[in-house]
């Protein structure tokens, strides 16, 4: 026998080996109980020991799945090269042709230093009309009895006839 306890022995193993050893020990004990119950004539098909053995077998399949080598993703090298070249060419084009930035001044402190571009921008803004400007309605009159819509004649009040 060994002088080490189970915890000391498990501490020396990696995770997969630890789980294998623990599952093997559990299966060994449960299998011995299963054999004992069969020797005593107990029906083990509906017994909880069958469920425990199935649970441990499931653990074995999980351990086996964890041991399988992971599939590496294959890189399509020619496609990756095309993507990189296209991105580098796009970046190179953008650095060759720097964009002209236009700054607008919004403060009133430097109003005497306006450039011709600022004046042009303001004059363009004043000359442009919105589509809603051409369809403005007349302001409502002070007479509250007239309706806002002047295109329709006012509705006449019908008098009730008393019989």
From TrEMBL:
One GO CC term, this protein: exosome (RNase complex)
Skewed-composition ranges (Low complexity): 89-102, 139-154
Chief place of localization: nucleus
Gene Ontology molecular-function annotations: DNA binding; RNA binding
Classification via Pfam families: Sas10_Utp3
Keywords: Nucleus, RNA-binding, rRNA processing
Localization per record: Nucleus
Residues covered by region (Disordered): 89-163
InterPro entries: Exosome-assoc_fac/DNA_repair (IPR011082), Sas10/Utp3/C1D (IPR007146)
Keyword Nucleus belongs to the record: yes
Skewed-composition ranges (Basic and acidic residues): 104-121
Taxonomy, superkingdom: Eukaryota
GO BP terms, alphabetized: maturation of 5.8S rRNA; regulation of gene expression
Function: Required for exosome-dependent processing of pre-rRNA and small nucleolar RNA (snRNA) precursors. Involved in processing of 35S pre-rRNA at the A0, A1 and A2 sites.
Similarity field: Belongs to the C1D family.
Designated name of the protein: Exosome complex protein
Organism of origin: Wallemia ichthyophaga
């Amino acid at each position: 026998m060994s002088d080490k306890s189970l915890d000391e022995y498990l501490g020396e193993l990696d995770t997969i080996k630890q789980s294998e050893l623990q599952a093997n020990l559990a299966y060994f004990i449960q299998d011995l109980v299963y054999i004992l119950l069969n020797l005593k004539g107990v029906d083990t098909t509906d017994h909880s020991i069958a469920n425990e053995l199935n649970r441990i077998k499931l653990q074995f399949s999980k351990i086996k799945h964890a041991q399988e080598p992971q599939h590496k993703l294959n890189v399509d090298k020619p496609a990756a090269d095309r993507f990189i070249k296209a991105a580098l060419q796009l970046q190179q084009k953008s650095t060759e042709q720097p964009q002209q930035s236009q700054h607008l001044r919004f403060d009133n402190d430097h109003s005497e230093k306006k450039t011709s571009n600022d004046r042009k921008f303001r004059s363009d803004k004043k000359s442009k009309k919105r589509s809603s400007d051409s369809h403005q309605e007349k302001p409502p009159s002070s007479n509250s009895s007239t309706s806002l819509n002047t295109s329709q004649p006012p509705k006449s009040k019908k008098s009730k006839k008393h019989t």
